[in-house]
Design goal:
GO terms for molecular function: carboxylic ester hydrolase activity. Keywords: Signal. This protein has 424 residues and is α/β, with parallel strands linked by helices. The chain has ten helices and 18 strands. The protein folds into two domains: 99 residues, Sandwich (Immunoglobulin-like), CATH 2.60.40; 287 residues, 3-Layer(aba) Sandwich (Rossmann fold). Helices cover 27% and strands 29% of the residues. The longest helix is centred in the first third of the chain and has 20 residues. The termini are close together.
């Protein structure tokens, strides 16, 4: 029965993803590395075969421009070439240290620009963080959590009948956070049947937006609690979020970046712990099986929550952000949000918020998934966190993907979570 349900979810994800992607590009730029697995050893040369396709046929006598170099760094090679026979092979010397090498190709056809980029890996399992671990890292976060808990948690649940159905009850939730007038908002989905259930904390990607509940996992017998991070209700009109994104919450990730107690992500990280406090208070929660799950910024928050809260037993993270943020200061790709220059004070503050330092304290099984060609969260950055995790970890790698997922990834993560949380 469970497998049938998973296949149904796959069908729904496929339909929704096709609708979201819309039409493909008229012209496809195909970049193929000469290693089938896209993995190389440091110092090894690489070759890229480049072809352009339209209507499944190669385009000939088209000029392309290409750039090759370390991920997110200035290119070490750039040139143009005419694809006389529809294909060109470009050789590169590769990398002299572990990391990712980018190959970007552009072409203009009938006045329309086209672009593609892929990254290949050079001993990516050996990438290490540039960010250092502060000596008082754990004591700092222990003190921050204690400070938050000095303010009692109070919660309000509002049943949403129009979003509920025979299988799932949906609630809007408002929780007092760590100071008077400070709240955390979320959407709670509970299986509509008797019993006690495992739970998943769903953590959001970057931006300012409305969030809906995760009813798919709830239909499989799991409580889900999806939170926002900005302390604003999640059922406002779209223009309200747009105004906040352009106004008070513009570039929120930079707010107070030189002060470790007041940095924007302080209340955000603590909000993840507070969200688990709320889950733990639910009479429908089984009191034992709790997972954290998210992608991008949500992937970062997943690792943070897993490191700070021992109640979390499993984690699932897609292409986590905020990893090795100071990487650019060491002439290599750093994590989202891409800070090129930092003051000494900012560097000191961000070390307390860098996901690589939380990754060092993860001791629970994790499901991870990403690709090599992510231009938003560079793989150099998230491998620097992944490589320091010593806990059991399962990686579902789809090398061509960037900052997006295939429907199959969503199905696999749901199945992994169900298997772990229910023991089935």
């Amino acid at each position: 029965m469970k497998r049938i349900l998973i296949l149904s979810v796959l069908f729904l994800f496929t339909i929704s993803t096709q609708a979201a992607k819309g039409n493909k590009d008229l012209v496809t730029i195909q970049i193929t590395p000469d290693h089938y697995d896209w993995n190389y050893k440091v110092g090894e040369t690489a070759r890229f075969t480049i072809s352009l396709f339209q209507d499944q046929q190669k385009l000939k006598n088209v000029k392309i421009e290409y750039k090759i170099g370390p991920e997110k760094m200035p290119p070490t090679q750039k040139d143009s070439v005419l694809l006389k026979d529809g294909t060109a092979v470009i050789k590169t010397a590769g990398l002299r240290s572990p990391g990712f090498l980018s190959c970007e190709v552009r072409a203009t056809i009938d006045g329309f620009p086209y672009r593609n980029l892929i990254n290949i890996a050079y001993d990516c399992e050996k990438i290490q963080p540039t960010t250092l671990l502060p000596k008082d890292f754990r004591s700092f976060w222990d003190s921050q959590i204690s400070r938050m808990r000095e303010y009692p948690m109070q919660s309000e649940m509002t049943f949403i009948p129009e979003e509920s159905d025979a299988d799932v009850k949906v609630y809007r939730v408002k929780i007092s956070h760590y100071s008077r007038g400070n709240y955390l908002y979320g959407v709670l989905c509970i299986p509509n049947k008797e019993g006690r259930f495992p739970a998943v904390l769903r953590l959001p990607g970057a931006g300012v937006a409305k969030h809906t509940g995760d009813k798919e996992l709830a239909r499989m017998g799991v409580i889900t609690f999806r939170i926002g991070i900005h302390g604003i209700p999640l059922d406002l009109k779209p223009e309200a979020y747009a105004n906040l994104q352009a106004g008070a919450l513009k570039n929120y990730m930079y707010h107070h970046m030189d002060n470790r107690e007041e940095y924007y992500y302080n209340r955000v990280f603590l909000g993840c712990i507070r969200a688990n406090d709320f889950i733990a208070s639910l009479p429908q929660y089984d009191g034992e099986n709790l997972a954290a799950y998210g992608g991008s910024q949500g992937g970062a928050l997943t690792l943070v929550t897993a490191a700070l809260d021992s109640r979390v037993k499993y984690l699932a993270a897609f292409y986590p952000a905020l990893c090795d943020i100071a990487g650019y200061a060491h002439n290599r790709a750093g994590g989202w949000f891409g800070v090129k220059k930092l003051t000494p004070k900012e560097t000191q503050t961000l070390a307390y918020y860098d996901v690589v330092n939380f990754a060092r304290f993860i001791h629970i099984p994790g499901f991870y998934s990403w690709g090599y060609s992510d231009e938003t969260c560079p793989p150099t950055s998230f491998y620097s966190a992944y490589n320091v995790i010593e806990a059991p970890k399962e990686l579902y790698l789809l090398k061509e993907t960037g900052h997006w997922r295939y429907p199959e990834q969503n199905v696999k993560v749901n199945q992994w979570l169900i298997d772990k949380l229910t023991g089935k």
